[in-house]
Amino acid sequence: MKKHQLLLGSLVILSIVTVHLTSVSAQGPKTQLAMLLDGSSSIMSDDFTIMLTGLADAIENPDCVPQDGSVELTVIQFGSYTRTEVPPTMIDATNASSIAATVRGITKMGGTTPMSGAIALATAEITGSPNFGTAAKQVINLSTDGAPNSKSDTEMARNDAIAAGIDEIDVEAVGYFPAVEWLRDRIVHPQPGTIHGPGYAHWPPTAPGWVRLVEDFDAYAATICGKFGVILQPSAIPEASTLILLGSAASGLAGYIGLQLRARRRK
Predict the structure, then answer these.
(1) What are the sequence ranges of the domains in the chain?
(2) Close Cβ partners of 238 (under 8 Å, ≥ 6 residues apart)
(3) Residue 132 belongs to what H/E stretch?
(4) What are the residues facing 173 on neighbouring strands?
(5) pLDDT band at residue 177, thresholds of 50, 70 and 90?
(6) Between 3.10.310.10, 3.30.700.20, 3.40.1190.20, 3.40.50.410, what CATH number should domain 29-236 receive?
(7) What is the per-residue pLDDT for 176?
(8) pLDDT at 2 over 60
(9) For 185-230, how does the pLDDT look when each residue is reduced to its tens digit (9 = 90+)?
(10) Rg (Cα) of the chain, in Å, rounded?
(11) 197 and 203 in contact (C-beta within 8 Å)?
């Protein structure tokens, strides 16, 4: 009887763990992600459209971006000024298509490259969201094809973002990019940063705080789904308490099976 009770208890614990893992997103987003899109004059209109289309397609694809409320997405464009295109919004199956449509409809503003303003606005949007106090991770991802208006201002905005509670800053650099090592050493977070792409380390990175080099915007759009996987996958890892519970259940079940095998050998 005790053996059957142990087996039943282990199965119940495993069931509880499964329910916990599948329903954790119902408690609110696990990741707050701000996408910063360069809309400056150096980017051709066709390339900007390719960038928007790639992002929108990924948002609509649940294999790229979860549609279960576990991700809060903000989209910001920077160029002549900085503008929030999609305010902090939890993505689910009911709104993914409308968010994607909004992204496809973004109008390119032109102008210069005020990265510092974009990072500051992203920080304000993330920390001002009601989910800031409960989400497990806050991430800024910046996509650009050139150097900022001011490197010093961008570094200050980056430091302010980290001080405010931003956990991760990553960059996608498109095309020929002379400032890539500055992005790695002074902008991405946490440090030490890494560079991935032609002439540098292979993709994917093994830790947050990376610069990814892609040759053009077609490559950007083609690989954006994989980028989301790198950013969002860590948020799906069970919490430590859950892993302990799962380990206890597995140990109990393994112990019971071992007892049965030993008992059979003695017969």
Answers:
(1) 2-22+240-266, 29-236
(2) 17, 20, 21, 246
(3) none
(4) 144, 213
(5) confident
(6) 3.40.50.410
(7) 76
(8) no
(9) 999 999 999 999 988 999 999 999 999 999 999 999 999 999 999 9
(10) 22
(11) yes
Q: How many CB atoms lie within 10 A of CB 206?
A: 8
Beta carbons of 155 and 187 less than 8 angstroms apart: yes
Separation CA 228–CA 96 (nearest Å): 15
Q: Of the candidates 99, 29, 104, which has an alpha carbon nearest to the alpha carbon of residue 70?
A: 29
DSSP E strand stretches across 39-121: 68-78, 82-92
**Non-local CB neighbours of 228 within 8 Å, separated by 6+ positions:** 58, 64, 65
Residue type, 180: V
Which residue is associated with the tokens 């899109």? 37
Q: How far apart are CA 241 and CA 234, in angstroms?
A: 16
Pairing mode, if any, of strands 82-92 and 137-144?
A: unpaired
Residue reference for tokens 């329903």: 23
Q: For the whole prediction, is pTM greater than 0.85?
A: no
**How far, CA to CA in Å, does 93 sit from each of 41, 54, 69, 235?**
35, 19, 9, 19
